Amino acid sequence: MIDVSLRLAWRNLWRYKRRTWLTVGAMIFSNALLVFSVSLQFGSYDMMINNTLQVFTGHIQVQHDGYQQDPKMRRVVPDIVAMADGLRSALGSNEVAARGAGFALVSSTDRSYGLQILGVEPGFESNVSTIPGLVKQGRYLNNDSYDEIVIGSVLARNLKVALGDEITFLGSGRDDSFAAGVAKIVGIFETGSADIDRNMAQVSLAYFQDSFAMEGSGHSIVLRAENIEGVPALRTRAKDQVAGNDKLVVLDWETLQPGLKQAIQADMTSAWFMYSVLIVLVAFSVLNTQLMSVLERTREFGTMMALGLKPSRLARLVMTETAMMAGLGLAIGVLTGFIITYYLSVVGFSYPGMEEMAARFNLPDRMYPSVSMLSLVLGPGIVALGCLLAAVYPALRLYVLLPIEAMRAV
Predict the structure, then answer these.
(1) How far is CA 94 from CA 150, 225, 251, 255, in A?
(2) Per the CB 3.0–4.6 Å rule, which of 45, 111, 198, 304 could disulfide with 309?
């Protein structure tokens, strides 16, 4: 009986081939578009997260418990260089770097500004941050650097200083003593972010520790994962390595950069609002097709009911026809979307002006859609569900259909 119903539904579906193909074509187009759009959206999020985190934050940081909420100088990671070396050895990765952070008043001959001074490991900082690669004038710090400093381009302009000039900084050390020093400018970086270029300077970690009375300690150990998917596993391994010190915590990027996650959620919400409009339009197309199909077969349905066929059987027949259309649109649409998206995930996708902008900010010049099972079935699955729901109304009309009146219909 089921086989007969399926054959009957398939036959009815192709009574009007043009109308059926128009409806299925709308499904195919919407499904292919959703597969590409969602994959591109996920890929852009991965790129946005990586590009934001690799400038400074990193994917994971080891900190003193409470430092993220209230970054006081006394909340330190003790013997930070040795701990960073231990993490590099245990994780089998050089994408680990120790840092110290302090606030100071920096002065040149003419002006003074407040900013954050970072103590970094020059040999490893480039593995977790893009700032070493963004030095536009001079050079970055090296392992022999001691009383040298690199600053942002906006700060250099504000202080009216250039390469080779000396600047003086004055702050508060870990033991509440005065932290003071004179450093020579060896490099000026430009990240494209005015806040970073205005409010950050970097010195070697050894010089920072001596100037701020850190006694071999620091404030964070930054780790970078190969990709976003690898962050949970890396965080677990890092937690295992610092488990013996209950004063330390391992924080991932969602905790370090909560605003980034909120921005992604806001963008996803607005994008799905637009996707919903597309899905509703396809659903109304199916509603129109199935309603016309039911109205055109009123006499046929009336005759079948007069012969003893129940309205529920006819309703299931209409739903079966809709399911077949949705399945056909789903299969062809997902396949088409997958082919297009997979190709672009290999060769990349760019738009006019993207390469120039990427070169300026040291970012990738192409976007790569992220193909996954979720991106393949999420949008098309919702389209198929919407199409089935749209067919409920035409199917329910059969329950109030009177056989005698139906057979008299023209």
Answers:
(1) 23, 11, 19, 23
(2) 304
- Burial group, residue 319, by CB count within 10 angstroms (0-12, 13-18, 19+): middle
Determine contact, residues 158/111, Cβ cutoff 8 Å: yes
Contact assessment for residue 172 and residue 211, using Cβ atoms and an 8 Å cutoff: no
CA separation for the pair 81, 98 (Å, rounded): 6
Dihedral (Cα; 93, 200, 141, 123), 10-degree rounding: -10
CA 328/CA 61 separation, integer angstroms: 48
CA separation for the pair 237, 71 (Å, rounded) = 25
Task: State the Cα–Cα distance between residues 354 and 367, nearest whole angstrom.
Answer: 9
The two structure tokens encoding residue 222 = 């930054």
Which of 229, 221, 212 has its CA nearest to residue 250? 221
Q: Within 126-226, where are the H helices? A: 153-159, 194-199, 205-211
- 149/137 Cα distance (integer angstroms): 13
Residues 6+ apart with CB under 8 A from 140: 122, 126, 131, 132, 150, 186, 187, 189
User: What span, in angstroms and rounded, lies between the C-alpha atoms of 217 and 96?
Assistant: 16
Provide CB contacts within 8 A for 97, sequence distance 6+: 58, 84, 120, 121, 124, 125, 127, 128, 129, 221, 222
- The string of pLDDT tens digits covering residues 206-239 is 999 999 999 999 999 999 988 888 889 999 999 9
The token pair that represents 256 in the structure block: 């370090």
31 touches 342 (CB < 8 A): no
Distance spanning both ends of the chain, measured CA to CA: 30
Over 277-305, what HEC string results?
HHHHHHHHHHHHHHHHHHHHCHHHHHHHH
The DSSP H or E segment spanning 99 is strand 96-107
SS (H, E, C) 304-347: HHHCCCCHHHHHHHHHHHHHHHHHHHHHHHHHHHHHHHHHHHHH
Tokens of residue 31, six digits = 């499904």
CA pair distance 171, 152, nearest whole angstrom? 19
pLDDT in tens, 171-213: 988 888 888 899 999 999 988 788 889 999 999 999 999 999 9
pLDDT digits (tens, 9 = 90+) for 40-67: 888 888 887 887 788 888 999 999 998 9
